[in-house]
């Protein structure tokens, strides 16, 4: 026998017999959730080693599993991320009090994870009571991130600031909350020094500036600071000189009458921030003060101008100083000319998001068009993530765009007028999106819009083999369209559809599919209650939740289907019926 | 989208009745449009603009159409907003229109005097979108013409020139600085007669 071969098989036998602590030591180096899931499927020994070594757990749908089950499987968790409501709740399509209250989870964690350090919530309901509970029960708590949550007020934040002695991160983003006062910031103890991340950009009430200044000077490890709109330029300057180590900055209002001396001081403050790689805020920024940013822009990789209604000239001048930009968010006030400047100046750009300054304005002559997008695709060959709101588009432009940038992973195109065709040919946008899925083989997320027929979805089903998330609105066609997606996209996880003619046949064609997906949303489609009931009956491991659409005459329903190990939820409000 | 608390009780009873009433929700697995219930439920899948709509905007689909009087041809039809469309998050919507948001705050009221007029007026600068709006409003208010602004020659060819007193107490010509800066520094307005302004070299 070949000595090499016998050594190999002996080796293999030894690996399989790894003592547990060695295996655990190795596995504890693995962070990725997907890798860990894969590891847990290898063998019973590996499953056990994995569950003991896991420190962070990610639950993509808080109703998919009970907190007790999570705690039983993973005894040593230090950080949890939870997502709650369906994504369309961001656009007011889910009534308040729908659910996703974090409290049931906190109660279990208080028992099972008293040493919990991190909690990251997205689209969950969090009450002040829950925040107070959190601050009281978890002595080791360090990082709180609340994105797109609701149900709490600044009172709850007071409890966090007062009682979490080791807080390193407080990240409050885009929540629908009761902003009573800025007093919470003054609740941090006098000698508090541990903060590394502070983001209160989306809160509107005034905080005590002296308290903020003191906090910033004391927290020497502060890396990320994003203040709200009420902080003036003068105040910003005072903060910056105390925190030149910042890597991410969100400014306050960028408009204030400054003396020449103050202007120079501000400029100097930005020059001293040598580690800035992300910049946001910039409310009301104009040509007046944008130049103070120029020195800080050379190393910028992320620039978020989505609160500053810049004109094309202003953007052009700014991006001329940002050669290393990788991610850019802007308002469509910059127009195509502004985007052309981006194309010329930012060759490393990977992500572009263009938001509409006036989403309800139907004036087709404002905002960005297909030529801006095309220009960026020509100048920025590394582009792979785009969110683009526009009022006109053509199939030809989309096809050329993906030809220039075949590496798209996220392609989210929103033609703002529902059902609008290619404005030059008057044809549906089928061929454009067809080109996207044919060319971009790594596509993971797709948002379609404009006039669409079944053909779009045939293309998606046939070519988008890596697609995980699909958003559809105001499409035309028939059940066949949705069937093509369900039959054809093996990696589909989240499917959200509104105002499209897909009915029970389409819904039921996914019988085999839904358990391999996280969720399905359908609103203002042709699905009826009996179709939903049939689905529910056939698939007990799915929750099929039906909400009555308030606006309509009672015929229209919103359907939310998701896989779950927890059975029908016990906290459903009266307007939600689990079939 | 308002959640109508008042109707909640009744609505729920009907909803539950729906579930029990199998006839109403009789399963039809035929092709869409091939049966009557498809017609009845046509509203579900109706797209805006696909019917000859009388409103400029959508009237079908899940939308909230404000009440409007069809006889009023002079008034533009209000845009019917579709719930949740375009998909822009609410926190973003309120910050995207800074002028409108600021309109909710206290106004910037300044006195306006016109040479030769017996009394002064007061206006709220926040109400105007920019210099053109402001000047037009002043022209209407005082029944005079101000003319066009140019950087080189001020308000040439007009009987009147608009000036303002800034924070330093200096009298400046309206239009030189960016609008936002003007709003911050304007203490009061004075519409000077050409004869007065000529002495200052602002009119030709």
Features:
A: alpha/beta, 21-stranded mixed beta sheet, globular, B: 204 residues, 5-stranded mixed beta sheet, two-stranded antiparallel sheet, 30% helix
Q: Your description of this structure?
A:
The complex is a heterodimer of chains A (579) and B (204). Chain A is α/β, with parallel strands linked by helices and 579 residues long. Chain A has 21 helices and 23 strands. In chain A, the strands form two sheets. Chain A has a 21-stranded mixed sheet, covered by helices on one side. Chain A has a two-stranded parallel ribbon with strand order 5-7. In chain A, α14 (335-345) runs parallel beside α15 (370-379) and α18 (454-463) runs parallel beside α19 (479-488). Chain A is globular and about 70 Å long. Chain B is of the alpha+beta class and 204 residues long. Mean pLDDT of chain B is 64; it is low at 1-16, 18-78 and 97-104. The chains are: A alpha/beta (579), B alpha+beta (204). Chains A and B meet through α20 and α21 of A and α1, α2, α3, β1 and β2 of B.
Q: Roughly what fraction of the amino acids of chain A lie in strands?
A: 15-25%
The total strand number of chain A stands at 23
Written as H for each helix and E for each strand, in order along the chain, the element string of chain B is HHHEEHHEEHEEHEH
Number of helices of chain B: 8
Spatial separation of the terminal alpha carbons of chain A: 64 Å
- Mean pLDDT score of chain B, rounded? 64
* Structural class estimated from helices and strands of chain A: alpha/beta
Strand order of the largest sheet of chain B: 4-3-7-5-6
- Please describe the biggest sheet of chain B, giving its number of strands, its sense, and whether it closes into a barrel: 5 strands, mixed
Helix share of residues of chain B?
25-40%
Major protein interface: A-B, 76 and 61 residues
N- to C-terminal separation of chain B?
Answer: 57 Å
> What is the CA-based Rg of chain B, rounded?
28 Å
Q: pLDDT below 50 for ≥5 consecutive residues: which ranges of chain A?
A: none
Helix residue percentage of chain A: 25-40%
Biggest sheet descriptor of chain A: 21 strands, mixed
Q: What share of residues are in beta strands of chain B?
A: 5-15%
Structural class, judged by helices and strands of chain B?
alpha+beta
Shape verdict of chain A: globular
Low-pLDDT runs of chain B: 1-16, 18-78, 97-104
- Rounded Rg of chain A: 26 Å
């Amino acid at each position: 026998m070949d000595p090499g071969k016998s050594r190999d098989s002996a080796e293999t036998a030894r690996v399989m017999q790894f003592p547990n602590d060695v295996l655990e030591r190795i596995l504890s180096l693995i962070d990725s959730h997907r890798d860990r899931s894969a590891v847990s499927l290898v063998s019973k020994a590996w499953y056990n080693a994995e569950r003991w070594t896991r420190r962070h757990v990610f639950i993509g749908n808080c109703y998919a599993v009970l907190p007790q089950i999570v705690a039983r499987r993973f005894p040593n968790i230090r950080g949890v991320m939870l997502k709650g409501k369906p994504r369309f709740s961001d656009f007011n399509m889910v009534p308040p009090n729908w659910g996703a209250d974090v409290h049931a989870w906190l109660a279990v964690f208080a028992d099972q994870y008293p040493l919990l350090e991190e909690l990251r919530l997205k689209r969950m309901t969090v009450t002040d009571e829950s925040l107070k509970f959190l601050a009281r029960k978890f002595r080791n708590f360090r990082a709180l991130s609340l994105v797109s949550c609701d149900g709490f007020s600044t009172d709850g934040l007071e409890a966090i600031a007062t009682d979490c002695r080791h807080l390193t991160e407080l990240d409050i983003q885009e929540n629908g909350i009761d902003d009573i006062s800025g007093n919470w910031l003054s609740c941090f103890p006098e000698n508090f020094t541990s903060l590394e991340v502070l983001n209160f950009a989306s809160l509107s009430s005034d905080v005590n500036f002296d308290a903020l200044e003191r906090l910033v000077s004391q927290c020497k490890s502060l890396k990320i600071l994003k203040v709200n709109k009420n902080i003036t330029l003068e105040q910003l300057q005072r903060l910056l000189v105390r925190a030149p180590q910042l890597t991410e900055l969100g400014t306050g209002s960028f408009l204030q009458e400054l003396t020449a001396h103050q202007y120079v001081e501000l400029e100097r403050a930005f020059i001293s921030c040598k580690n800035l790689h992300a910049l946001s805020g910039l409310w009301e920024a104009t040509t007046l003060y944008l130049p103070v940013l120029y020195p800080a822009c050379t190393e910028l990789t992320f620039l978020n101008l989505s609160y500053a209604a810049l004109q094309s000239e202003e953007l052009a001048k700014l991006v001329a100083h940002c050669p290393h930009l990788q991610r850019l968010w802007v308002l469509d006030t910059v127009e195509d000319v502004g985007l052309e400047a981006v194309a010329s100046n930012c060759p490393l750009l990977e992500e572009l998001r263009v938001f509409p300054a006036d989403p309800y304005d139907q004036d087709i002559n404002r905002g960005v068009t297909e030529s801006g997008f095309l220009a960026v695709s020509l100048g920025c060959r590394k582009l792979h993530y785009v969110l683009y709101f526009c009022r006109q588009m053509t199939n030809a432009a989309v096809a050329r765009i993906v030809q220039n940038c075949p590496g798209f992973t996220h392609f989210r195109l929103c033609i703002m007028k529902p059902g609008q065709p290619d404005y030059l040919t008057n044809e549906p946008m089928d061929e454009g999106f067809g080109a996207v899925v044919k060319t971009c083989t790594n596509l993971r997320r797709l948002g379609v819009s404009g006039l669409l027929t079944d053909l779009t979805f045939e293309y998606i089903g046939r070519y988008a083999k890596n697609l995980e998330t699909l958003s559809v609105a105001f499409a035309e066609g028939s059940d066949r369209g949705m069937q093509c997606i369900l039959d054809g996209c093996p990696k589909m996880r989240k499917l959200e559809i509104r105002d499209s003619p897909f009915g029970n046949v389409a819904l039921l064609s996914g019988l085999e599919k839904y358990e391999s997906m996280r969720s399905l949303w359908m609103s203002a489609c042709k699905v009826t209650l009996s179709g939903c009931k049939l689905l529910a009956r056939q698939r007990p491991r799915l929750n099929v939740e039906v909400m009555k659409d308030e606006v309509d005459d009672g015929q229209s329903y919103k359907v939310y289907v998701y896989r779950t190990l927890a059975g029908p939820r016990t906290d459903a409000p009266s307007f939600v019926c689990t079939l | 989208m308002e959640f109508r608390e008042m109707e909640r009780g009744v609505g729920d009873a009907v909803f539950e009745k729906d579930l029990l009433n199998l006839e109403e929700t009789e399963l039809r697995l035929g092709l869409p449009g091939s049966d009557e219930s498809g017609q009845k439920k046509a509203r579900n899948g109706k797209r805006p603009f696909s019917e000859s709509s009388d409103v400029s905007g959508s009237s079908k689909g899940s939308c909230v159409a404000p009440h409007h009087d069809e006889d009023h041809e002079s008034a533009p039809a209000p845009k019917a907003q579709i719930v949740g469309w375009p998909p822009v998050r609410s926190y973003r919507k309120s910050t995207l229109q800074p002028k409108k948001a600021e309109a909710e705050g206290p106004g910037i009221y300044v006195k306006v005097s016109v040479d030769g007029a017996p009394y002064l007026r007061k206006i709220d600068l926040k109400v105007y979108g920019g210099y053109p709006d402001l000047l037009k409003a002043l022209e209407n208010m005082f029944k005079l013409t101000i003319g066009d602004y140019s950087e080189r020659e001020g308000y040439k060819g007009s009987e009147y020139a608009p000036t303002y007193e800034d924070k330093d107490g200096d009298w400046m010509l309206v239009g030189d600085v960016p609008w936002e800066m003007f709003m911050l520094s304007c203490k009061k307005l004075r519409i000077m007669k050409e004869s007065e302004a000529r002495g200052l070299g602002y009119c030709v």
